[in-house]
Amino acid sequence: MVEPGVLTGHIESYVDTTRSPNEQAASLDSITSLVKNGLLTIEKLVREMEMYLTTTDSVIRARGTLLLAELLTNLALKPLDSVTIHSLIDFFANRLDIFFYQKDVMDSRPFYPVFDVVMAKHAVAADWRALRGALIGCLALLRRKSDAGMVSSIDAKAAAESYLKNLQVQSLGQHDRKLCFELLQCLLVSYPDEVASLGEDVIYLLCESIDGEKDPHCLMLVFHIIPALVQLFPDPSGSLASFIGPLFEILGSYFPIHFTHHIGEDAIVKRDDLSRALMIALSSTPLFEPSVIPLLLEKLSSSLPSAKVDSLKYLCYCSIKYGADRMAKHAGALWSSIKDAISTSLKEPMELSTSESIHGLGFQENEIASEALVLLETVVMQNNDLLLSLIVDDEDVSTIFNTITSYGSYKDVPLQGKQSLVDIMLLCLRNPSRDCFLNFGALYLCMELLAACRDLVIRSRELASNSISAHEKFCCILQSFYVSLIDALCSILATTSNEVAHDVEIYFRLKSLQILATFPEDLLPIPKNVFENILTTLVAIILVDFNQKFLWKLALKALVHIGSFVGGYESEKALSYISVVVEKIVSLVSVDDSSLPFPLKLEAVSEIGASGRNHMLKIVRGLEGAVFANISDCYVHGNVRSVEMAIQLLQFYSEKVIPWINETEGLEEILLRFVTNLWDHVESWISRDVQELFDAIMMAMKLTVGCCSEEIQDIILRKAYTVLSSNLSLLVNKSLSISIPVQLEESQLIQRTENISQRDELVLSLFASVIIAVQPRTEIPDVREILHLFLTTLLMGHVPSAQALGSMINKFDTKSKGVEISREFTLDETIDIIFEPKSGNTHNNGVLEGNGNEMGLADLCLGFVNNRQLQVHAIVGLAWVGKGLLLRGHEKVKDVIRILLECFMPDSSTRTSNLKQGSSENVPDQDLHPSIMKSAADAFHLLLSDSDDCLNKKFHAIIRPLYKQRLFSEVMPLLQSLIKKSDPSFSRSMLYRASAHVISDAPLIVVVTESKKLMSVLLEGLSIFSEGILDKDQLYNLLLILSGILTDKNGQEAVIENAHSVINCLTGLISYPHMMLVRETVIQCLAAMSELPHARIYPMRTKVLQAMSKALDDPKRAVRQEAARCRHACSPFNTSFLFCLDIQQGINCIEIRDFTRTKAFPRPAEKIVTTG
Amino acid sequence: MVSSLINANPVVYEKKERRVRGAPSDVDEYVVEPIDQQEFINHIRDIKDPEHPYSLEELKVITEDAIEVDDRHSYVRVTFTPTVEHCSMATIIGLCIRVKLIRSLPSRYKVQ
Questions:
Q1: Distance, in angstroms, between A1155 CA and closest chain B CA?
Q2: 3-state SS track over A232-293
Q3: Per-chain mean pLDDT for chain A
Q4: Tens of pLDDT along A737-763?
Q5: Which part of the chain is the MMS19 N-terminal domain (chain A) (predicted)?
Q6: Rounded to whole angstroms, how far apart are CA atoms B75 and B71?
Q7: A259 at the B interface (CB within 8 A)?
């Protein structure tokens, strides 16, 4: 139990008005928790509070009552026994009477053990202040749910009576009024029967209390109360009817809702919410109808747009609520109002619509019109015949024009309604002469009508319950004129190219044609010749009018729509579409006679192709023909002109056709056919050495193969292998195995390189492309032969071979499938063959075996053969093989790296020992050639960068995640230690080069974390790359890394440490002539550095500013702009000083002249020129 | 006490839409892009008027047409129109433009 002192303290602090609100709230909370936890009963509390509830001091009494009320509000969920509730509600209900204390109430009161003492001492005087507490208390008690103990209905009725008898709502303050309304609402919702039994007094009281109410919160409550009240008195001739007049007078004055002034706190009650509540209140009983509808119609003609929208909304809602019978008598007035609203609001958009885009021509969002249409729809639904007869009888035809076109597009309107509308429209259509079709309005109408008819038909099909037969009136009318309409449109379109037509007109013409052409066939059987006429007209536009972009695009779009419409099923139309459109378009590609630009041709082809499967198949076939015709034109007849076209066609094939086939199921045959065709053709090609075309063919081959399934790849591979083995002298010539005889003279090797004929190279490259693109599971025939072949050719400098070899190794399945070849030929073996031929090369025969001087790729890289060319090729090959290993995360990649690194060391121990063991007599003791070190350094770029040509996701490479990070962390320490060891010679710079490659290709985040260690390497790399033009992209990449470091907090520290050298390096790069982006980025980096701490940057400032003044005169605009920005960023170091100087300079050379006013400068002021 | 503003309520013109140069996609690395009026105005358009929080461009003190540029002879002449007659701030504005240009142009230019 609680000590009395504590409780008194809490009560005291709440009642004391001098305490802060926070303290009061805290004491309320603590009392609440006491009661909640059962430490205090209500009875005990009331006893304790006796003094505060009964004192003569009205302020303290008010606070006391409020405390009890607030406490009850907080305890809404705590179960209380019925006696307590009864006593409390009685207490509060009595307190609603502000003169309560003047009465001698005790006489009639029964005896309650707890409250008698409290209540007995009630004092005198009107008690305004205590009213709030009483209201809150009543509300809290009446809102209680049954599970926590409700107020009994007798008590509730008593409370309601007290409310009616005592409360003068109008005279209270805003908050109290709100509480009153809440209380009333609560009574109506929770105890409707009790309130109803009070009779019309309630309605009277409500009318009285809401009269003149202006507060939005209170109004909101009032609007909610009215529907509830109306429900209580459902009898139309009963007590409510007599109050309808006054009630409407009060409510009607609020419409339309309009806030006279905006107060921030009132934003809680939105205008829309309030307006909606009023709408529900007004429509709550049909009894309002005679007065509400005239009011709304009157307000509809007001000039305020929001009032119009509101009226329309209310009308719509009310007409549903009031019912058709009651609304019937207003129909005439309604229709004319709606008509006015629509016609006035639609006039403007008709003009605006000219600016609409291709994608759809609609009216601007027009709330009034759309609301009016919604209303129209509602009333038509409700009272069909009456309204329609009204509409039909309306003589105001021009208004109907506008109304009906929009109405016509309304799909939800009942069918009969639509039909008769169509009748009217057609009636109107017949009136104007044929010429009228040409003008804008008629065209627009025409299109809308057609669209409406089509939608109507399609929808009725969907509903299936009420389908329309071809004998319906509108169909007959349509049938009677569509042929002439199509003819007219076609002839206009055919001549459009000569005249300057407005875009909108073109749009309507094409759209109408499109709609007519796509009309359901059974309703509008367009004859074949007419349909073909449409198509020919459109195709003619495609062929000729390519200068008019808009027309061309729309025509293409219309064709595509028609295509997808007819493409769905086999019919006469589909056949004529194919014969007229598709074949014409296909012939575009293959015949080079029209003047249509090639890219547009391709666009047309791809769009039309997308309209249907059959079309695409036809197009693909035609495209293939064109591709091969062009390629052989180039390769066989040596026609250089076809090269460009062939390349574009191949690119189109790779970019559009292959993805499309990929998405569509069951079309792999096409891919197979393409590839097989390619292989069949290869034999007849005589290469003219056109590298771009060749690349395009290879890319198409790779993509095609990459998209195929395993089985098809298998077929392709076999085919390819057959062609390869029958053609390539290399494969047959077994003497060329992987091992290169050491004693081979340089001249011989070079000779051999030239030995590969261009045609052989073509075949080989294509074969390599196939190998690159196959899936890992596809089985490669005769692996050993192919491996040898690739090894040989890569040593001749054939890069695709190296890539194919890398791909093979990447995809080699370590746990093989059990096929013979794979069983005896695993990945490890393959690698052995590549690196150490002696162990793996068992079958080696011929001349070379006798020598015993076979060497692997590894040895070749290290220069055992005195042939630099060969060595470079070997390194490139090794890099690709290494990339294949790296991607799959194989251990051997370390060996590859070791070999590459050894290339940098002219006299490393490995090499010397190898030399001694090996054929030292053949290799003169020489320094490594620069080109070898350079290619070794560039090999790191190959290893780390993403390649488009091979070993990527598209070509099914096995890629382990984070391989770049792993390699980076493995290689960088090695490189750095090597750099430390090596003397400042060429090899050192090459090591820097290699490191720069590694840094620029590794992910930025890894580099940034290591930035402190890498800064010197990075800067060195920048200066190395800046030497030549070839490395500009690398330079740019590296620079981006540096700027990335600059933006990172970690990286900034590293930069601050090396500030001097960084700035030196950057200022050196400002004049890099080969790439604008480099200069721009350098300046941006410098500007970013100006934000670093002054102490470090300040000494370098002059240098930066000097460099900037040079950059300000850069030939490129972007660079100059950046330079100006950077210069401004740098100068604030000593703005005051610099500015003083500038001002001094400026004043010396300023002279003010007066100019007479001239016409060129009409403003009445002097022109002042600063002159130097 | 600071004397009242010379032109307390200047006409503020709308800022002209900043034209974005259509960047040609594959520019030749070595083509020289000459300095032109637009580039100049970009440098000086955002200078604030000494007595109003508006930029010179908004007040139409400077316009693109009032700038003569001759890139080959390294010559530029900016004519500006103060908002009111006898604007005491004219020299200051002139100075601002001058300093800004000196800072933003290559040293070969003589600013007039």
A1: 11
A2: HCCCCCCHHHHHHHHHHHHHHCCCCCCCCCCCHHHHHCCHHHHHHHHHHHHCCCHHHHHHHH
A3: 68
A4: 444 443 343 444 444 444 556 667 777
A5: 46-97, 125-342
A6: 6
A7: no
Query: Judged by CB atoms within 8 Å, which residues 1075-1094 of A form the interface with B?
Result: 1075-1076
- Quick check: helix, strand or coil at residue A1167? coil
Q: Name the band, by pLDDT with cuts 50, 70 and 90, for residue A516.
A: low
Return the higher-pLDDT residue of A131 and A382. Answer: A131
Q: How many helices (H) and strands (E) does chain B have?
A: 2, 3
pLDDT at position A99: 54
3-state secondary structure A332-399: HHHHHHHHHHHHHHHHHHHHHHHHCCCCCCCCCCCHHHHHHHHHHHHHHHHCHHHHHHHHHHCCCHHH
Q: Is B91 on the interface with A (CB under 8 A)?
A: yes
Beta bridge partners of B111: B76
Considering only A80-89, A519-528, A857-866, A1011-1020, which range has the smallest mean pLDDT? A857-866
Is this complex's ipTM strictly greater than 0.85? no
> Which pLDDT belongs to residue A949?
73
pLDDT of residue A631: 76
Q: What is the pLDDT of residues A977-1017, one digit of tens each?
A: 888 777 666 777 788 888 888 888 888 888 888 888 888 88
Q: A1170 contacts in B (CB within 8 Å)?
A: 78, 94-95, 97-98, 111-112
The residue in chain B having the minimum alpha-carbon distance to the alpha carbon of residue A1107 is B106
Q: Chain A: residue nearest B60 by CA?
A: A1163
Average pLDDT of span A293-313: 77
Q: Which of B29, B79, B105 sits opposite A1167 (nearest CB)?
A: B79
B110 in contact with chain A, both atoms CB, cutoff 8 A: yes
Q: For testing the chain B interface, which of A1075, A1108, A1134, A1168 should be mutated: the one with the most B CBs within 10 Å?
A: A1168
Comparing alpha-carbon positions, the chain B residue that sits nearest to A1074 is B29
- Judging contacts by C-beta atoms under 8 Å, the chain A residues touching residue B111 are 1170, 1172
Which pLDDT score is estimated for A595?
65
Domain definitions of chain A by residue range: 1-158, 171-267, 285-352+363-386, 409-521, 612-708, 721-960, 1019-1138
CATH architecture, domain B37-111: 2-Layer Sandwich (3.30)
Q: Which residues of A touch B32 (CB under 8 A)?
A: 1115
Residues 43-62 (B) with a CB less than 8 A from some CB of A: 43
Q: Give the lowest-confidence range in A389-398, A433-442, A449-458, A989-998.
A: A433-442
- Of chain A residues 1127-1156, which have a CB less than 8 A from chain B? 1127-1128, 1131, 1139, 1142-1143, 1145-1147, 1150, 1152
Q: pLDDT-based confidence at A122, cuts 50/70/90?
A: very low
Q: Higher model confidence: residue A374 or residue A110?
A: A374
CATH of domain A1019-1138: 1.25.10.10
HSE-CB for A700 with a 13 A CA cutoff:
29
Of A288, A191, A281, the closest CA to residue A243 belongs to A288
Q: Is A130 exposed, middle or buried (0-12, 13-18, 19+ CB in 10 A)?
A: buried
